[in-house]
């Protein structure tokens, strides 16, 4: 596994910068014979696409995907699937300030420290625009795990959480926040609007659930399903925390309260609870696989923040470019994609070893 | 990277079961010429070793490590370092119940679902005993990153947290809880004793900090330092959550509050805060690298829990074998080891690409 | 390392089919700050390009490379370099026969046996056209190992070998055969013309030498420099044999005749011979690294050969499409590329471990 | 894949030096439920074991293997299988000369150039003794591919080849040379005896055939079955060449002579010849998979050879330690092991992708 590749058997490699001509992904190891077309991938990209509401960046990108290889007569051939998305709305001039000073909280300084220089246009490789390539690859992964349903939603924005009692899956795609609680969505509209107008930003928590995962996917000890999910989610821009099942809350429970008791069922054991988030010993249990992901507020804010120049002088920087007031919102389809990519890989790995 | 191997250039592979003759690790890719001996590794194993206080499992294991290869005249040769630890105190009879019923919350059912059967003695490969091999490998990693200091501590047990105002690094090794707050340590003594006597168990939160990491380690996008740390920590038994820097709390901050402003310093930029936990864009910033890890309460409790047999019948199981009342306590040296292993790998990866 | 990826730290992934819209490579792990442009890559592609003489396939492809990512202001940034080459002259109609019968010696049957179906247009993924992507990636690799000079030539066509006494490096690029022996080049003109006109094909042997490789690249035991070179060369279409140094001839020498005696030199040991091809114990010795590669005659011939249809019926097939009468000729720049790719990876690996 | 690990899904890692306390292999990714015991592995080690005739090194090693993990109740559990072989007959004093001067043709100088120093006892990690670990791992691989039969033999020693007309598989284990031609075996007895008494050494060519490999194992383009075999065989000590099928001879055939024509058969296509060695496009065709491997004469000879000291002074060295007069002989069981290891990995990879 190299710097820009993820997966063990079902693998994808992404490439591209925010303001280069294009970005893309190469998906390798995909089983042959699966139906796949650009039309099947595009809807996933459209959910992540910027510029669809005033609550996301105003950069206008059609994010139209092209399949350049690996598909013949509408079916995957088993050879690498090359996916390309052209960058259209680049406006590089917006980013001239970024060349002259490090944006605190962004990767600017770290890239310079590592590589000696950087592509400063829109964050270059560190831009969240890369997640479009993941979402495209994730759409391929979904074809590999047709038995699994994956659904992500936003649980909390700026500390304002949904009420679990109001959870309604139908709502998720009915508002611009992927919010399953209609009342919370109304509150968030005000909240995010305020942040947007103030040039501020808000953090968010995204939850994701995969149902239909059979018991037995995952492996000890460094290919554990939860370990892979943690790596996948923590690799997304702005993510600072990952929980499986009850996560940090489990650390405050007793063994009795945290027990996932079982009873016989017609189709294998039934569990009375799912504190574990569908994973035990790194292997799926047949229950829904659950992950929660914390997105920090983006560091692109209008308030000037003290910083330094590449030359080492003190200065201030305010981020005037287009950006998301709450980057976690568009994180929901990205977390879904990472869940799909991990599960597809684990399915094939399981098949490799256990037939 | 395979099932039981971790790392990209500095890699280790662990093997062994709780009740087999031995367990161990093979460390590959270690730079040559580093001083290494069994005496240098043993102290790290001794910190993790069970049976040292009444707050850990009473299994008595000397955990004496042998170096079988890769060291000549007291120095690493650059070839694989094979580390072996013999199992001494196995008492397999304690585990006969485990063969007859799945322990809820343990890997028993998941292993059977995956592999068709399992080594049920002490959890087999899923036992936390495997972490001894990680700690031994971690001691080798420390020799690779001599410029880095790593320190882990327990921040919370059973929901009872330390008071940051009382943080005293000297305390960490002065009590059986790796607790930096002397007063919290006193409270935990009562708390863990109660749980132990009741045959119950408690969760815990472990924090770990690495200082001395230069800016520039890590890489986009799937070899991000935070992604690697998340994978490493989530692969530890009983871990259900990982945070970098402010973690989930960052999701409740505004962009202004979360900003890590910089000013010029004599030795590169100085940061006014470290919300990011020393990592931006997946690359170290030169600040302390900080991770927090949630351990669930172990599922080994005396209270009978409803479960099923491998044959599918309803039954109950109570865990009478020796176990840790709070497995997170001994997690502290394990998290330290994983931090060292990730950083050693990232150091070498950085050297590979950036000279 | 996955199906279509090669390398450990400096890695490349290729994608694309003979008759798809494009093919390409993603190069990951490239050091930052190296000068790179399309103009620097194109000459290597031009050497491999078809249609430049009557001795290669008449498919006319400009093989113009585009850099889509990883380069900023004319220098590599350290992020993935995406290289794309559009297919222009596809004439898919030529290949309708191939859909109806397996071409013996080609991958047709094997692909169907593996994947259940195949992209039959021009061999799909199994086409030698994929080697364009390798050559593009190889040009990037050369920038990584500027201290090394790599030169390949054709040593033998159809059993007619060069005379080592006539070896003249200047000749290599002075004829369409990459032949260092001007007289042999004249003979080959006749030989290959005959084969071409008869619709037959010829095998060839390509030699490649890298000078300037310092002692110390490579590693025991499964990252040996010779093992990597063997894998790299054997992965090229039509290759059936690989030799390092004296290769099979060494198996007929005594230990005395095969000895590479050393004497002191001003710049490390001097070797009196180089039977070993510059590699001992899998690690470079500082002598020229030498590899020889056997290319079979392409199976695309006009003579009808008995075969079967996908349905299992007996038939015959003659290959009328455009093809190389001696595919080994254009193998020379491909072997050069693979040598560069392996050495770049080994250089970075050595730097990772040995600083 | 790291320095001392081979394979993608079915992977093994070897460790150990010639004169350390032990050597071994960790096999990861083995399917669960396979019968495995030390008794099943030992016969393969016994075939490779030194000291069994006067034609091999006189070092006396029982090469008794211990299984330390991954097997429970006589079956593989799916977790890592740790195999250990203790070194018994080490006589380190024999190798004092080697510390003081580089043996030409050995890895001595290359190791020093790479690592700065080396374990000079018996060649340390570069000793052919490491192949014992491969053979043990190979025995596990055989259990994974029970449908495949693998047989290697020596085809040529010191330039004296077997007569294919005399090929008798029964003979292979009936003489100390793994020679299928009884008359050649008699000649070799004289030949090798002469070399042994003269303190000289001879090269050899080993052939290996796997029958029962179904069509469809292998993958484009860098996981090609032939590419993997080439890497595997070239990683064996003293190997300088690898051929698949007709190998270098194919480079001298025309396309007509090299054609592997097919006709319908009851069980898939029948092939009229097998020039390709059972592999087309990197994927198995269902025919026997054939590889030939060239072993150089060992560089350990009694005749003094000019060399240099680590300090750079001129000297001579003669190798007086115990060694094989023809290291290729014991190469036969090692090539078999590598064939088994590659095929096991490819079988599981095929299952991963193609179900």
UniProtKB/TrEMBL annotation, chains A, B, C, D:
Cited PROSITE patterns: CHORISMATE_SYNTHASE_1 (PS00787), CHORISMATE_SYNTHASE_2 (PS00788), CHORISMATE_SYNTHASE_3 (PS00789)
Cofactors (names): FMNH2
Residues binding NADP(+), per UniProt: 48, 54
Chain residues that bind FMN: 125-127, 237-238, 281, 296-300, 322
NCBIfam families, sorted: aroC (TIGR00033), PRK05382.1 (NF003793)
UniProt catalytic activity: 5-O-(1-carboxyvinyl)-3-phosphoshikimate = chorismate + phosphate
The protein's role, per its UniProt record: This reaction introduces a second double bond into the aromatic ring system.
Enzyme Commission (EC) number: 4.2.3.5
Subunit-level organization: Homotetramer.
Organism, as annotated: Stakelama saccharophila
Family: Belongs to the chorismate synthase family.
InterPro entries: Chorismate_synth, Chorismate_synth_AroC_sf, Chorismate_synthase_CS
Cofactor note as given: Reduced FMN (FMNH(2)).
Gene Ontology MF: a single term: chorismate synthase activity
Designated name of the protein: Chorismate synthase
